[in-house]
Design goal:
The model has no long low-confidence stretch (mean pLDDT 95). Helices cover 33% and strands 15% of the residues. The strands form two sheets. A seven-stranded parallel β-sheet has the order 3-2-1-4-5-6-7. The chain has a six-stranded parallel β-sheet with strand order 10-9-8-11-12-13, sandwiched between helices. By secondary structure, the protein is α/β, with parallel strands linked by helices. Helix 7 crosses helix 11. The longest helix is centred in the last third of the chain and has 20 residues, at 339-358. It is built from 13 helices and 13 strands.
């Protein structure tokens, strides 16, 4: 049903669109979007750093190593959280160059995709004649486009607010499409080693306090990977069974996820998506999460892991993690979060938006339609969707 589209995709001003920046979910979405949509025959133009490495029809350099050095010096983003400011040199250079270069290339009915939301708004404002779609909203504020794609129903509902419950204010074109992953980046292993893994921003918001307390009490081996300094949050003495392994590159991540017997992501905030937990599932690694946000959508309780609300429940989940079948974790991820699967969803949505610009909009009919599967979710074999009466 879908026609071929032209996409202008914007890299992040403070990162590089390549596989080294695995700690930035938005950078990885840009990287994979190029591969995903090129494979489906669409035209993709990327604007970003000179060292970007992605599949696209054209890469346009708008920032350089000198720009990042001028803005951030020798700041170590592998050890610390990313540093950036919309007024810094990297951002201002990105805006000026991208606005100019998009202007040279845009055509009627082209899509302009601000993956970084408000951080890309100046470019979108300069080209408001294009079809601007926010392609993966997982940020708490700064949404601005008419056309919006949210990462989960949790973040969509949160941004809609309680007013949306009592009033008819929903938007047909504010939809949900999950994040997407390349299965080749992960290694499935049914056989596990004796350790749990925490991978992400190392700070209380991602639940490191809970993970630490459970593993310390139960004497569980834990590897902690990601940006952030534990010492900043009062962790001075590290028990012998807990190990800090730092920032993982793609190959290290692949190996460590494959052998971990369980993955922790007990987010303390309303998690918009929690991509690291889905990465774990691709490796067949069961996950332990809180019971809110996107976890309620993506972590099938008792199938791909456990969702918990008390310390006792977290301890029980850790003790019983071997009850989860690694193959079910892998099957759930492979059926619902690959680029092949999510590419279908994106194409369906972009066609809906294009119908507004070139057809009858909401009333546009597609006689050639053979199915309505784009919102389907596919469950592992034998999963009980509802309890027996």
């Amino acid at each position: 049903m879908s026609q071929k589209f032209r996409f202008h995709i914007l890299g992040l001003p403070h990162t590089v669109t390549n596989d080294q920046y695995t700690g930035c979910a938005y950078t990885q979405k840009v990287l994979k979007f190029g591969k995903m949509m090129k494979a489906r025959g669409h035209h993709v133009i990327h604007y970003g750093h000179e060292d970007s490495n992605l599949i696209c029809d054209e890469h346009v350099t708008v920032t350089t190593n000198k720009d990042l050095e001028k803005a951030y010096g020798n700041y170590d983003w592998r050890k610390n959280f990313f540093k950036f400011d919309m007024n810094d040199h990297a951002y201002q250079t990105f805006y000026n160059n991208t606005i100019r270069e998009v202007g040279k290339r845009k055509q009627k009915h082209d899509f302009l995709l601000p993956f970084w939301g408000w951080g890309h708004k100046p470019v979108c404002d300069a080209h408001n004649d294009m079809i601007v779609v926010e392609p993966g909203i997982g940020y708490a504020e700064g949404q601005f486009a008419q056309w919006r794609i949210y990462e989960s129903y949790a973040i969509r509902s949160a941004i809609g607010g309680h007013q949306a419950v009592g009033t008819c204010k929903e938007n047909w074109y504010h939809i949900v499409i999950p994040n997407y992953f390349d299965p080749s980046e992960f290694e499935y292993s049914k056989k596990k080693d004796d350790y749990f893994l925490f991978m992400g921003r190392v700070y209380p918001g991602k639940g490191i306090d809970i993970v630490w307390q459970v593993c310390e009490k139960m004497g569980l081996k834990l590897k902690i990977a990601g940006q952030g300094n534990l010492e900043e949050f009062g962790y001075k003495e590290i028990p012998g069974q807990i190990e800090k392994v730092g920032y993982l590159n793609s190959e290290q991540r692949k190996k460590m996820l494959a052998k971990a017997k369980g993955f922790w992501l007990p987010s303390m905030f309303n998690e918009p998506f929690g991509g690291a937990s889905i990465e774990a599932l691709f490796a067949g690694c069961p996950i332990i999460t809180t019971d809110w946000g996107s976890h309620a959508e993506n972590n099938l309780h008792g199938v791909t892991g456990f969702r918990c609300r008390t310390f006792d429940e977290f301890c029980w989940a850790a003790k019983n993690i071997d009850k989860i079948n690694p193959q079910d974790c892998r099957d759930w991820a492979m059926a619902n979060f690959t680029m092949d699967r999510i590419g279908d969803m994106y194409e369906h949505y972009f066609q809906m938006v294009m119908d507004v610009h070139t057809g009858k909009g909401w009333y546009q009919e597609h006689p050639e339609r053979k199915e309505l599967d784009w919102l389907n979710r596919y469950y592992p074999k034998g999963v009980k969707i509802a309890p027996k009466a």
